[in-house]
Amino acid sequence: MIRFATQTTVVLLLLGTAGSAISFAPQTKNGTFQNRIYHHTATGTEIRLPAHWSILGDMDSSGGGEAVTVKDKSGQRYLVWMISSSTAAEGLPAALEHDADYKVQQRAAHGVQLNARPGTLRKWHVEGGNAQALSVAFDIGQVARIEYDTWVRTSKTLVYFTAMVTCTTGDKTIGCSASDIRSIQDRSEILVRATVVP
Q: Are 79 and 11 in contact (CB under 8 A)?
């Protein structure tokens, strides 16, 4: 279902690190951006940007989905991937389990080993559906990183949020601290709460 893991990693890395200053009007071809609300045409998903957050642009993505890139006030980038996906209400929890399992398997197939951090799996209900979030640790070369992933499913839409950060130490032999995880989790949840999934 979610065939975009490698592309997501490349996009997030190319977008740069927190603190980069790029100022331009967002280029949106798959949705509209007015009054600080990004409306995704194909799914009807809306991202109601918090103060000092911005849309960098949207794009076609793999797996038949489309994605938009969001930046928070600290400069952290997030990718939000959206697709219409019909799922019966009783099948939503199982579909979310599959989404997370598929991501780990797909990254492993591309040589990236994701390690779920204990105690970070969260599941909750949203209006019209279910949500699940998970923090995973991995490294690129000698650099330790954290990726925070959230899936939101309703009976007709799947939205996937991801953010990647270099851990405080940046050293894979030390790994990522609990504060690294809390920081990206808290900021990611602001974006999830600001998104209305039909």
A: yes
Give me the tens of pLDDT residue by residue for the chain, a chain 198 residues long.
Answer: 444 444 444 444 444 444 444 445 688 999 999 999 999 999 999 999 999 999 999 999 988 999 999 999 999 999 999 999 999 999 999 999 999 888 878 777 777 777 788 888 899 999 999 999 998 888 777 778 888 999 999 999 999 999 998 887 666 655 677 888 888 899 999 999 999 999
Angle of CA points 177, 103, 31, to nearest 5°: 100
Q: Which domain holds residue 89?
A: 5-196
Two tokens, residue 74? 């600290």
**Single pTM value for the model:** 0.83
Number of domains the chain contains: 1
Neighbours of 175 (CB within 10 A): 15
Distance CA 176, CA 136 (A): 10
CATH number, domain with residue 121: 3.40.1000.10
Closest CA to 198 of 41, 39, 45: 45
Gap between the Cα atoms of 93 and 112, Å rounded: 26
* Closest listed residue to residue 68, CA positions, set 179, 159, 186: 159
Q: Nearest-CA neighbor of 36 among 50, 22, 21, 57?
A: 50
